[in-house]
């Protein structure tokens, strides 16, 4: 049980380049989400998914696309990177404990720099 | 929209002493969940403690306890017998009680522990 894995751990992009941040979990969790963390801002939600084939926008979705074709994977795509997307990105998945109580597990994060 | 406010950007505590981190939130929901996450320099997000709003009893996990004041919408974290390993960023977070809903984070408090 590897938990939530994210690749790569570090990435440098030039403005205008595209890339996909990978996120996978082997815990059969239905709910997955992407956050970005900027200095002094805490974590802000980008997109989330409540199950395969279902995604929705969070607080800061502009410039990012997601899809959820399987329960295990939830990739985040940057179609045309901008310096404002320099951040640390976290993927999380959550399991239902009881009575709607759930716990979110976070991946180790990806540090992205856009020059 | 729900908001979470952490009014202390930085705090410090002497080793073995007790420190309290503050968190207030705003919501119109009557049932919800509150969390404290720890983020050490490794940047891994670690769940410290969780409180269900319908429970009047304050949650406790070893040296960590909360003071949950529902009417005041306050959710502070008390760390007793502080240890060097407690030094980290601490984030307060909120989620609606629907099982698969995103977390709303505060901006964090950086805790330093002085030997």
Task: Describe the 3D structure.
The complex is a heterodimer of chains A (about 120) and B (about 120). Chain A is mostly beta strands and about 120 residues long. Chain A is built from no helices and eleven strands. In chain A, strands 2, 4, 5, 6, 9, 10 and 11 form a seven-stranded mixed beta sheet that branches. In chain A, strands 1-3-8-7 form a four-stranded antiparallel beta sheet, with no helix packed on it. Chain A is globular. Chain A starts with a strand and ends with a strand. In chain A, about 35% of the residues are buried. With about 120 residues, chain B is mainly beta. Helix content of chain B is about 0%, strand content about 50%. Chain B contains no helices and twelve strands. In chain B, strands 2, 5, 6, 10, 11 and 12 form a six-stranded mixed beta sheet that branches. Chain B is globular and about 40 Å long. The termini of chain B are far apart. The mean pLDDT of chain B is about 95. The chains are: A mainly beta (about 120), B mainly beta (about 120). The interface of A and B includes residues 33, 41, 50 and 100 of A.
Give me a quick take on this structure.
The complex is a heterodimer of chains A (115) and B (115). By secondary structure, chain A is an all-beta fold. Helices cover 0% and strands 57% of the residues of chain A.
* Average pLDDT over all residues of chain B: 93
N-to-C SSE string of chain A, H for helix and E for strand: EEEEEEEEEEE
Helix content of chain B: under 10%
Radius of gyration of chain A: 14 Å
Gross geometry of chain A: globular
SSE map:
The complex is a heterodimer of chains A (115) and B (115).
Chain A: E1 4-7, E2 10-13, E3 19-25, E4 31-38, E5 42-51, E6 54-57, E7 64-66, E8 76-78, E9 87-98, E10 101-106, E11 110-114
Parallel strand pairs in A: 2-11
Antiparallel strand pairs in A: 1-3, 3-8, 4-5, 4-9, 5-6, 7-8, 9-10, 9-11
Chain B: E1 3-5, E2 10-14, E3 19-21, E4 24-26, E5 32-39, E6 46-52, E7 60-61, E8 64-69, E9 74-79, E10 88-96, E11 104-105, E12 109-114
């Amino acid at each position: 049980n590897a938990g939530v894995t994210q690749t790569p751990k570090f990435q440098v992009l030039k403005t205008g380049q595209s890339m996909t941040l990978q996120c996978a979990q082997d815990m059969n969790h239905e709910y997955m989400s992407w956050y970005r963390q900027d200095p002094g801002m805490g974590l802000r939600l980008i997109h989330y998914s409540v199950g395969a084939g279902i995604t929705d926008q969070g607080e800061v979705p502009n410039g990012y696309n997601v899809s959820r074709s399987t329960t295990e994977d939830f990739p985040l795509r940057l179609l045309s990177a901008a310096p404002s997307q320099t951040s640390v990105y976290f993927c999380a998945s959550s399991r239902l404990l009881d009575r709607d109580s759930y716990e979110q597990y976070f991946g180790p994060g990806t540090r992205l720099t856009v020059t | 929209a729900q908001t979470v406010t952490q009014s202390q950007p930085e705090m410090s505590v002497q080793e073995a002493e007790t420190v309290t981190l503050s968190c207030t939130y705003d919501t119109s929901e009557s049932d919800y969940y509150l969390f404290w996450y720890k983020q050490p320099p490794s940047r891994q997000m670690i769940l410290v403690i969780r409180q269900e709003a319908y429970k009047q009893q304050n949650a406790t996990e070893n040296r960590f306890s909360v003071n949950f004041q529902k009417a005041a919408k306050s959710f502070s974290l008390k760390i007793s017998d502080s240890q060097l390993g407690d030094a980290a960023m601490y984030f307060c977070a909120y989620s609606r009680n629907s099982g698969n809903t995103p977390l709303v984070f505060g901006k964090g408090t950086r805790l330093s522990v002085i030997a």
